[in-house]
Design goal:
This protein is 29% helix and 12% strand. The chain is built from 3 helices and 4 strands, in the order E-E-H-H-E-E-H. A 4-stranded mixed beta sheet has the order 1-2-3-4. The mean pLDDT is 89.
């Protein structure tokens, strides 16, 4: 799987993360992204088309700042465990941009 937003960058292949594409932004900065995170990101393209480039830029800046980043659906249950990487969810990128998306996939609050 390739992510077209980062096709201009060299791919980063890690034996532990071969199912999750990764890219090298510069000599020090690299990231790996779960497919589920990318699905969330892709959905934002239709929700916020005018801000999508801003979101991609925020991801890139986060990687440059933190050097090694693993983007995951759920930081408590990441797809893989990589030492020396920080784990971030989509809200870690969107909240500072003041883009808030309601999570409508959660279970009912009413119970049985």
């Amino acid at each position: 799987m390739d992510y077209p937003e980062w096709s201009q960058y060299p791919k980063h292949n890690d034996s532990k993360s071969y199912l999750c594409p990764g890219y090298i932004l510069n000599q020090d900065a690299r990231f790996i992204m779960e497919g589920a995170f990318y699905t969330q990101l892709s959905n934002l393209k239709s929700l916020y088309p005018e801000r999508y480039d801003e979101i991609i830029n925020a991801i890139n800046q986060t990687v440059i700042k933190n050097k090694r980043v693993f983007f995951t659906l759920d930081i408590e249950h990441p797809f893989i465990d990589l030492p020396n990487y920080i784990y971030l969810e989509i809200t870690d990128i969107l909240d500072p941009l003041r883009i808030f998306v309601e999570d409508k996939s959660r279970g009912s609050d009413y119970g049985d």
